[in-house]
Amino acid sequence: MTAIRIDHVCKRFGPPGAPVVLDDINLDISHGEFVALLGASGCGKTTLLRIIGNLERATSGRVTIMGHDLSESSASQREALSDVGFVFQEHNLLPWRSSLANVVLPLQARRVPRHERREIGERMLDLVGLSAARDKLPHQLSGGMRQRVAIARALSYDPAVLLMDEPFGALDAQTRDGLNIELQRIWLEKRKTIVFVTHSIQEAVFLADRVVVMQGGPGRIVADITIDFPRPRGIEIMASPEFARYIGELRAHLNHQAEAAE
Ligand SMILES: Nc1ncnc2c1ncn2[C@@H]1O[C@H](COP(=O)(O)OP(=O)(O)OP(=O)(O)O)[C@@H](O)[C@H]1O
Ligand SMILES: [Mg+2]
Q1: Pocket test residue of 11, 20, 47 for ligand 1, highest count of atoms within 8 A of CB
Q2: Residue 26 belongs to a domain with what CATH number?
Q3: Strand 220-226 relative to strand 210-215: parallel, antiparallel, unpaired?
Q4: What is the pTM for the complete model shown?
Q5: Binding-site residues, ligand 1, Cβ < 6 A
Q6: Segments forming the whole domain that contains residue 103
Q7: Please, which of 5, 80, 169, 195 could form a disulfide with 68 given CB 3.0 to 4.6 Å?
Q8: Of 261, 255, 155, which Cα lies nearest the Cα of 216?
Q9: Domain boundary residue among 142, 158, 174?
Q10: 132 falls within a domain
């Protein structure tokens, strides 16, 4: 079943004649699939993610989330949106609220009763391994812990689709490896559909079922590569020849675009 359908999406910021940022993007993502979006800075990854999440409108074309067309009625937009969770590079936690209070924020907005909020919030913090940090404020947490709170918050209302924009981009390599393992575990447990934007070829290959490569000026999809490692994947696959082959193949697609730009 298709979770996200992107159909001939184009995006221009500004009037006709302004530069085209996304040019005829077509992509089908299945329910429960983990797709990584890879591409050079400025090629339109965030813009595409924001269009999928209905934070930005496509200039033309159509996006359907779990069968709801984002360009149709606003009721259908709301329904589609409630099925989408966001995790950004900046965690966006409220500095004066504890981990638990941050995690349950979307539930509060959805008028979930207090006792239920607390129960879900504690379960989500447990899922990301942060039960002990329940009452801590964001500034008392490490960068990796903050991102885990942000993931728990995005999962709190049980969205079918999770959109992640370089969620681990600001972290050191070791913390990032740890969170990649953890994200995979959560994904295997919850089977959300995930679209994960990253600059890291390694991270993309480690996490994803499919790596979609974008090229800029104007943004379009130049490769769509299935990653065939069994799950759960351990860090040791990164040392395998198959892993190196995928890295080489993806790097060739990325370099090809760099050469074309010269
Ligand atoms: N609100 C906006 N108004 C005008 N132009 C924009 C806007 N948002 C993005 N752009 C332009 O669209 C292009 C794609 O930007 P986008 O942020 O989607 O790239 P990206 O692939 O996410 O880059 P990065 O990897 O650096 O995050 C860029 O040229 C950017 O300047
Ligand atoms: Mg971006």
Answers
A1: 47
A2: 3.40.50.300
A3: antiparallel
A4: 0.93
A5: 13, 21, 39, 41-47
A6: 95-158
A7: 80
A8: 261
A9: 158
A10: yes
